[in-house]
Amino acid sequence: MSAEADAFIGIPGGFGTLEEVLLACAHGHGEREPVVFLICDACGAVEEATSPGVNRGLAGLAAGAGFEPRSQVVEVVGRCAACQAALKP
User: Which of 4, 35, 50, 60 has a 20 to 30 A CA-CA distance from 69?
Assistant: First the structure.
């Protein structure tokens, strides 16, 4: 993912959270398209993803509440594939 980023901006905060690092990405997701950050709490890796299903789900939630979002960012914290594999005997 770092190859796709235009800039990395470090901000003091918790390890592996968006308070720590913001990524200005270069791939072409839409302005109002949700961005999902997959954050590994073991090694700190951050992957960015988008999903039509997440887009539909958040749009439905917002519409049901009469809410018009300007930005949609979701953090999912867990273990990346490499860290999961490292834990297996």
Answer: 4
